[in-house]
């Protein structure tokens, strides 16, 4: 497949720059059996059934962006990609000249950071402090909004670019399908008999990178770490036994589940995934996907095309543009029922 098969024209005015006034006050495009239904997000309660299982990603976005200087005085910007342990991280570093191993950075006017070297495209950094790096980031860092959001992080973003069920700190981008849920909606789902379960996948900045290779097969997928708890595996077994559907809230939840089932059976535990889901992939776990609208030529658009069908997703995106749905992180949602193999 050619990468340009996943391109589409999106007017800038449809890129949501701010969240809706309240969580859940979004539209929902329901894609099923070749049908496109315009709904409201609250209608999710009508579409899900008793004994369905919603799987949510409980990762928490960290304040991963830091500004500072090199010892030479040159300005730098650091975006933490992954926390390795209490004092070390992998990070992107923007500078007029890349720092070298053994050099030091001064971030947020107070934090001394040693450059240990390179790991692929990232810099291996050590924070020279007795405090854990997550605490330092919370105090000195800034929220890393996606590149298509044009304003710097504000107080509104501190609250709304985070799910209400975020627990495990480590993501540098939000699992955005989860942003639509408030506590009231989660309780209403439980009251209906829908079960909730959680996975953790720490979303990396690579999620925003377009595929630049001419052919999809030439793209090198970014790596993310995930965890599947025993309780979630047990919940999936029970849902299947009760004829319930497994509904992944977000592509990140889907990636975690499908990564953990690569050998056929869903495995408990932690892992590292570079899974690249493209049309032709055989899904093992997920029946329905709740997701936002994705960037042109992105790996996530390829994933939803594999899930819902190439032509069906093309039609859904054309419809969404025509009907002026809001796109990307703060935008509207899609509920996609998996296209059955023919």
Number of strand elements: 17
Average pLDDT figure? 96
**Relative strand content:** 25-35%
- CATH homologous superfamily of the largest domain? QueA-like
Contiguous runs where pLDDT drops below 50 for at least 5 residues = none
Can you tell me the CATH topology of the largest domain? QueA-like
- Helix tally? 8
End-to-end Cα distance? 19 Å
N-to-C series of helices and strands:
EEHEEEEEEEEHHEHEEHEHEEHHE
Classification by helices and strands: alpha/beta
Assign a percent range to the helix content.
10-25%
Could you give the order of strands across the largest sheet?
A: 2-1-17-16-14-3-12-13-15
CATH class placement of the largest domain: Alpha Beta
Largest sheet: 9 strands, mixed
In the CATH classification, which architecture of the largest domain applies? 3-Layer(aba) Sandwich
What is the domain total for the residues? 2
Coarse shape = globular
Any idea what the radius of gyration is?
A: 20 Å
Compact summary:
The protein is built from eight helices and 17 strands. With 342 residues, it is of the alpha/beta class. Strands 2-1-17-16-14-3-12-13-15 form a nine-stranded mixed sheet. A six-stranded antiparallel β-barrel has the order 5-6-7-10-9-8.
């Amino acid at each position: 497949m050619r990468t340009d098969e996943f391109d589409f024209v999106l007017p800038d005015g449809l890129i949501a720059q701010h969240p809706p006034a309240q969580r859940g006050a979004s539209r929902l495009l329901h894609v099923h059996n070749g049908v496109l239904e315009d709904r409201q997000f609250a209608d999710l309660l009508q579409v899900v059934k008793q004994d369905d299982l919603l799987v949510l990603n409980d990762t928490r976005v960290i304040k991963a962006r830091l500004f500072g200087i090199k010892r030479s005085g040159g300005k730098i910007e650091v975006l933490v990609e992954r926390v390795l342990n209490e004092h070390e991280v992998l990070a992107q570093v923007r500078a007029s000249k890349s720092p070298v191993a053994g050099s030091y950075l001064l971030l947020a006017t107070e934090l001394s950071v040693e450059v240990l070297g390179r790991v692929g495209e990232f810099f291996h950094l050590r924070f020279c402090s007795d405090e854990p790096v997550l605490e330092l980031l919370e105090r000195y860092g800034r929220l890393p909004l996606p590149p298509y959001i044009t304003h710097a992080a504000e107080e509104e973003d501190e609250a709304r670019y985070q799910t209400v069920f975020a627990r495990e700190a480590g993501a540098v981008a939000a699992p955005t399908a989860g942003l639509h849920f408030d506590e009231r909606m989660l309780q209403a789902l439980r009251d209906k008999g829908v079960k909730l379960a959680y996975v953790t996948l720490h979303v990396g900045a690579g999620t925003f990178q377009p595929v630049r290779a001419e052919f999809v097969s030439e793209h090198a997928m970014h790596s993310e770490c995930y965890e599947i708890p025993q309780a979630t595996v047990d919940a999936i077994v029970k849902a299947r036994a009760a004829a319930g559907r497994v509904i992944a809230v977000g592509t990140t939840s889907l990636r975690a589940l499908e990564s953990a089932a690569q050998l056929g059976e869903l495995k408990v535990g932690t892992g590292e995934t570079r899974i690249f889901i493209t049309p032709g992939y055989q899904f093992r776990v997920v029946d329905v996907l709740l997701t936002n609208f994705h960037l042109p030529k992105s790996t996530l658009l390829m994933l939803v095309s594999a899930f819902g069908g190439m032509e069906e997703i093309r039609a859904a995106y054309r419809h969404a543009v025509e009907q002026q749905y809001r796109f990307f992180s703060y935008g509207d949602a899609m509920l996609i029922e998996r296209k059955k193999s023919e």
